[in-house]
Amino acid sequence: MKNLTANRIIEFRQQIKCIGIFFLICIVPLALANWFSENRLVFHIILFIDGWLTWTFIEYILHRFWNHSKSADKQNAIVQRHLHHHTHPTEIKVTGKQRLAMVLIGFVLISISSRTDNFITFLAGIWIGFFWFFMMHYFLHQRWSKKVFPRLLEYHITHHCKEPDRCFGISCTCWDLVFGTGPSSKKLISEKVTAFYFKGHKHD
Ligand SMILES: [Zn+2]
Ligand SMILES: [Zn+2]
Ligand SMILES: [Zn+2]
Fold first, then answer.
1. What is the C-alpha separation between 169 and 181, in angstroms, rounded?
2. pLDDT (0 to 100) of residue 30
3. Which of the four pLDDT bands, split at 50, 70 and 90, describes residue 199?
4. Which ligand number lies closest to the CA of residue 64?
5. What residue ranges do the domains of the chain occupy?
6. pLDDT for residue 28
7. How far is the centre of ligand 3, averaged over its atoms, from the C-alpha of 137 (Å)?
8. Mean pLDDT, rounded, for 28-43
9. Looking at the CA of 170, which ligand is closest?
């Protein structure tokens, strides 16, 4: 019990620190966007990229502190679902409906942001970042990703099979670099571990 409370305090502090650093990094581009507000194209490009970057941060925080919370109790549904993914890595699915819904929402947001010509572009950036993350996680569990996204795959295999308390970034390794949670050793991932990661298993 005592340990849980201690963990909760540690995690809370770590989260606050991450959010503080994120604000420093992501507020500057927003100020820049305002500076460039005469040039609407540059304004929207900065907002879009900043929104995307903001998503990658949300992805990092959710994965590190919510999916892998050390202070949540074992029955917590978010933790349970994620643990299931860790032990059954090949059972990841993206349905056609999910993809279609996400693309449609993306189109709606982009068309609203081009019409309203304001900060909605930032939201569009977050959404596209989310969509890309969703697809990317699926890609990282397909064998061909070895050739196309070798570095992201290295991070994700490390997270799944070697160090679950490191390498939380899925669509981007940048926040692991900023917060010092990249792979702890430079050793390459062995063929054996890679084979285990990609190999499915039979259910009764
Ligand atoms: Zn995980
Ligand atoms: Zn399974
Ligand atoms: Zn995964």
1. 9
2. 87
3. confident
4. 1
5. 2-198
6. 86
7. 6
8. 87
9. 3
